[in-house]
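Subject: Sanity check before I submit

Could someone independently write out the structure tokens for this chain? I want to compare against mine line by line before I put it in a report. The sequence has 275 residues.
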Amino acid sequence: MPTVDRVLSDETGAERTGGKPPAPARSEPKVSVIVPALNEARNLPHVFARLPQVDEIVLVDGGSTDDTVAVARRLRADIRIVRQNRRGKGNALACGFAAATGDIIVMIDADGSTDPLEIPSFVETLRSGADFAKGSRFQPTGGSADITRLRRAGNKCLSMLVNLLFGTRYSDLCYGYNAFWARHLDVFDLDSTSPPPNSTDGRLWGDGFEIETLLNLRAARAQLEIVEVPSFEHSRIHGVSNLNALTDGMRVLRTIAREWPRRRDAIRVAERQVR
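---
Independent answer below. Compare away.
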């Protein structure tokens, strides 16, 4: 036989919280923005000035020799600073993802090329049912003030190859403005803890600019609901990009070759489960 107190507790909800009504459930997802940065002190004021209201900003420093960290802290007292444990943009993102506490994770660049004002579009795409919101410069209202003819042609060829092999419909494979629900983080299988390998550049596979392709391919392999979001890429504000069209293009091609067998294995497993 339940006591009177227990019955009243179940009916009013007040007894369970010491006489106070229960706190309302959070209706809005918490948004974490990951900003990998290496010597971007001059660009951060421009980038942070355009950030909409978000719940968490994680700046991942790649060993900057300028005032990147000091400037970030001056601009945003609530910013979280993470030091990446290896080298490269891919490793920086992996470390930032691991540190994020939000329900939604958004990745932007610290050089001003990705527009923070587009973040609400990515968030809304996820809230409307997507698992992975993928920025595209080649969707209507998208574009680029930075991409060269060589990079555009290479991107188009690589996108066509991936669409053929992975059954995707990507219009822009090599673009790093993406967002996803944090609950899918394990899908990407990124290493944020291993020390640098004893190799020439001290990077594991996925630590470089190939990270953007890697995320796109693994999202497809996991059969996440992927929706492209139109995005406009601006020119870097200050400094020079570390991207090399030839060498990084070859890393993307190698990424496709390495991920394709895993895609086939996933298809075989799915077929066996159906049977």
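---
OP: Matches mine. For the report I'm noting this point. Confidence is low (pLDDT under 50) at residues 1-18.
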